Amino acid sequence: MNIGVSAGRRASLDEVLHDLMIGRSMSPTAVQVRSPARLHLGFLDPGAHLGRSFGSLGATLDGIVTRVRISEAGTLKISGRPAEPVRAILERLHAALGLPLRGHVEIRESIRPHAGLGSGTQLALAVGMAFCHFHGYPATVRQVAGITGRGRRSGIGIAAFEKGGFLVDGGRGSETSTPPLIAHLPMPASWRWLLIQDAEAEGLSGSRERAAFERLPRFPRAVAADLCYRLMIQGLPALAEGDYAAFCEVLAAIQQANGEYFAPAQGGRYSSHRVAEALTWLQRRGWVGLGQSSWGPTGFCLLPDPEAAERELDALGSAFAATGLRFQVVATRNRGADLFRE
Question: Most buried of 37, 104, 207, 213, CB within 10 angstroms?
Fold first, then answer.
């Protein structure tokens, strides 16, 4: 997470939290947080064969954000959408930390919900961190995540807010509060994510998501072992060395295993048949690193450079012009959220 003061001067999160704890920082007149979307690229072991469940990998996206600003007001005022989840977040913080329910909370921009881009976690963390900083409370990102109920299965959204880049979390054990970040690497600046979005579809969430997990059989141990082996011995080294082809092989293997496992709960390997058609079309053109983020419906294809991304973007736009799908090219954001104190 990146802290800015006044006209863009930045300090480390540790420095600002230390100043807040010893009372050195004056209360700001306003606080603004800009938090990034993320791709959830798959689970490693939902079956908890070694006592830890899930374990996730993901990537932070540039250019798709939730943006929140809190300024002084005599009472609590919420502008923009979604207002009700924001009120619930603030009430949890009030109950846990005793912070006054006061201030003008503006939701100036928000990630589309239930699209597989991590909107719920980014909203909770953006609102929570802005609210705590506005009231002079030295909250950590993990503290806010715990209070607001984030990270129940995956810690990728929390780590994206904290660090950005490519992320692997260690899943949940019996004493886990939020899944720990166990690997964090920047992604090459030239690589691009081609996103495929279906506005008419929604991924599972809430009670429907919980019910889906309860109905699914246990994830096969042999598959979990293979995915962890591939990620550790091939995927992470490939990313560290900028080996696009080798990294995409591992990404494809993890996506295939997750797609097949979750197919009974989402009606197929992909939750949107229109996104599935576009991904199949890209695969036939020779691309390997593609799949679905979380429960979808957003699909993605990792491309090696901006030129290839623009070519495929134009080709997809022509081939699927009548489908209503939306296509977008974004880079990886190799840093976390921004917080500005005004």
Answer: 37
